[in-house]
Design a protein that fits this description.
This protein is an alpha+beta fold. The chain has helices at 15-27, 65-84, 103-115, 126-132, 152-165, 208-213, 290-297, 300-308, 310-321, 323-331, 389-408; strands spanning 5-11, 33-36, 53-54, 88-89, 93-97, 122-124, 140-144, 148-150, 169-171, 176-182, 185-190, 193-202, 222-233, 244-247, 259-262, 268-271, 275-276, 342-354, 365-367, 379-384. The longest helix is centred in the first third of the chain and has 20 residues, at 65-84.
Length: 417
């Protein structure tokens, strides 16, 4: 077998791609495996631009893959970090109701979290809320003591080290531009030459639909990028937030809403908002990729979504350009905040999967398709892996390896034919 031939190829060196690679090699250590990444570094996009929260599984519908993967994945992640001496803190989180209309939704979150097995979850009164977060205002809150914070970029590098230690390769600056078949093998055409593999798994995040389309898989669900901008608390005001302060999700908008996130380095992030990004990798307000933008605006699913949430979306965009409006949203939870407490922070872009009817794809989507012609059946795509995918990465990797083995006999790849 040449240096360009492998048993298994994985596209995408984010948390999911790397976790899948280490899981596959732990089960079948004699397989030749390569991870292809288009950027010069691993974890360059969603994996390296998230808030760094270890979620516990409060929000997700009981029984959904998201719920199961978050609970199991969070526990597995904590064990992994302890084995690898990766720092994390279980600082806890409060989800805060500020008016009576939010109380039924808070109770529903309590029901969901309890059904999902979230440890230590409790509804608390204002007095207890003040003990946990002295500067936070609210009439009731849901307290999750086992929610944590971590540096997921460091986790990604640990996964990568495991892959390499198990004999796998990680090839950065390898953009996959085309995918074809020759006999029983999939051919990945990259700017650095062709790579051949008996089995392919794509974990391409912001470009997952495009990678799937290269194998003649259906284009839907499509990825629509949403940018989230953060402010940070001025260093002498970080005492205003001890840990994590979250809102009760608003059913009128498909995203979570601005919140307070303490980081391992002691800084506190405020946000994010959620506005349409004009490029799939558009981390700044004025970043525009005409092709990406045309894809989004021309997609019927986005047009329907935009019509449904027009006024809410316009309010988000207004807040994106108006610091005082952003501050007002934050002051619902911490009234002491002042305008000069907010300094410019980072941003991220979320890969939101969207159906053609304008509905958001809420759960993880993992399936095999494309190139599944006679003699095929050796391609799998991770089509949607939104938050809490970072928390869930080890559990998602296990689920992908299970499905690949059950549906395609992945464990036999490389030793037959």
């Amino acid at each position: 077998m040449s240096e360009h031939e492998f048993d298994i190829a994985i596209v995408g060196a984010g948390l999911i791609g790397l976790a899948v690679a280490r899981e596959v090699l732990s089960r079948w250590p004699d397989r030749r495996l390569v991870v292809l990444e288009k950027e010069p570094e691993i974890a360059a996009h969603q994996s390296g631009h998230n808030s760094g929260v270890i979620h516990t599984g409060i929000y997700y519908a009981p029984g959904s893959l998201k719920a199961r993967a978050c609970v199991a994945g969070g526990q597995a992640l904590i064990r992994y970090c302890e084995e690898r001496d990766i720092p994390y803190v279980l600082c806890g989180k409060v989800i805060v109701a500020t008016d009576e209309s939010e109380l039924p939704r808070l109770e529903e979150l309590h029901r969901r979290g309890s059904a999902n097995g979230v440890p230590g979850l409790e509804v608390i009164a204002p007095e207890r809320l003040r003990e946990i977060e002295p500067h936070c205002a609210g009439i009731r809150a849901l307290y999750s003591p086992r929610t944590g914070i971590i540096d997921f970029t460091r986790v990604a590098h640990a996964y990568a080290a495991d892959v390499r230690a198990s004999g796998g390769e990680i090839r950065t600056s390898h953009t996959v531009r085309g995918i074809t078949r020759t006999g029983q093998r999939v051919v990945l055409h990259t700017g650095q030459g062709d790579v051949l593999a008996r089995f392919l798994i794509t974990c391409a995040g912001l470009h997952s639909d495009r990678l799937a389309a290269l194998t003649n898989a259906p284009r839907d669900p499509r990825i629509v990028p949403f940018r989230g901008d953060y402010y940070a608390l001025r260093s002498d005001r970080v005492h205003l937030c001890r840990a994590l302060i979250y809102p009760v999700p608003d059913p009128a908008f498909p995203f979570l809403g601005v919140h307070f996130t303490r980081r391992l380095d002691g800084t506190v992030w405020l946000g994010p908002n959620a506005v349409l990004a004009f490029a799939r990798e558009g981390y700044r307000r004025l970043d525009v990729n005409p092709g990406d933008l045309a894809d989004t605006l021309g997609y019927r699913g986005f047009q329907l979504l935009a019509g449904r949430f027009l006024w809410t979306g316009l309010a988000e965009m207004y807040r994106d350009f108006n610091k005082r409006a952003f501050l007002k949203a934050l002051q619902r939870y911490v009234p002491e905040l002042r305008l000069d407490d907010l300094v410019d922070g980072p941003s991220g872009v979320r890969a939101q999967a969207l159906n053609s009817d304008g509905s958001l794809v809420d759960d993880f989507v993992i399936h095999g398709d494309g190139l599944d012609r006679p003699g095929g059946g050796n391609v799998m795509h991770v089509r949607n892996a939104p938050s809490p995918a970072a928390t869930s990465s080890l559990a998602i990797a296990s689920a992908i390896a299970d499905e690949a083995e059950q549906r395609y006999g992945l464990g036999a790849i490389g030793i037959r034919g």
